[in-house]
What does this fold into?
Amino acid sequence: MKLNLKAVLLGLTGIAIVLVMLGGLALSLDERIRAAHQRMDVRTQRLASAGVPLLLNSLVVGDLASAEQTIDNLNVDRVLARRAALRERRTHPHPRRLAAPPERIERSRLGPALHALKVRETRISIAADPVVYAVLAVTPSSAPIEAELWRRSAPR
Amino acid sequence: MVPLIFGVLNQQSPALTAERWNPILHYLTAVSGVPLVLKMGPTVDETNAMMARSVFDLMFTNHNFQSEFDGIGYRVIARWAGEPIRTVIAASADSPVRHLRELEGKAVAFPSKEAFVGYAVPLVALRSARVNVSEVFAGNQEGAMAQLKARRVDAAAVNSRFLSQYAEREGVKFREIYVSEGFPELAVIVHPRVPAATVDKLRRALIGMADDPAAAPVLARVKFRGFAPASDRDYDGVRRVYKQTGQ
It folds into this structure.
């Protein structure tokens, strides 16, 4: 009887330790994913913003081939999952209201349930007020972030 | 109603040109009821080629005063308001070059071979002073000043208005080595296919812009005083200089 109580206590303590460790790991991963999302958003914004003046130059003179080339050059590191799309090529005094950007879930090799990375489309207006030449819609790739998380999580 | 195509000479990058001209064209469209849309080529040569092909219904330029465009029949309906424009050949503030003759053999940036104050006028001045320079064509005035700022050339020839705007924007000081006589600001010209009634509406909207309180925010934003009345005869001096250079 004594032995059984000891075993139960030991077992419960072990389970508690495992639960605390798992909880800590989950919290840490959640924090990392959140930080990774922020980095991904900043990187996408920075990339897209860098290309806006060049794209505006091309679109004002109607040179769509150069605009396409600029977008390709921006994505040499494959930071964007879906090639940036110029959603509108109409000039109008006020930009039309666009539908809310879709959210996309990429399956992660870190485990589908906990680590699914949601990537949101970013839209940047390419305009010389009051004319909107195009709206650049870019969807970042979660691959670089996954690689980074994988590197940090993998045993050394 | 199909919008009329308003061409603008490449004095700055297309993006900066659109930032300056879209608010103006938006205002003119609202006041005159004649829809206008900005169009230009990626380079001065291409914009001029478009003018030669009669792509533009209206245009802001002075390159039409070259004899090669005489046959098209563009007419002046207004000009950019303000003091006459002059060619300035500028060097860096710390440059040892102080006089035109000291530019002998040196690299000088020009916007393009087609430019009036940026090339034709300084060319006549340099020829008169018997100074030979190494010509560098930068595409537009912005490019010419960028070459000077980066010290890839010893001097740059641009128009006086542009130089003061550039110096203010970039926070850089330049020394003026040569300043030409004054010429009227660039003209707004209209193609002969545009109906007289439309031309009249546009002319009134252009000239009235300077005194219209509704235009004040646009004028302040693009830093200009509006348009002034002008006719083809005001540009005889421009034609004379182009002829002297064989253009």
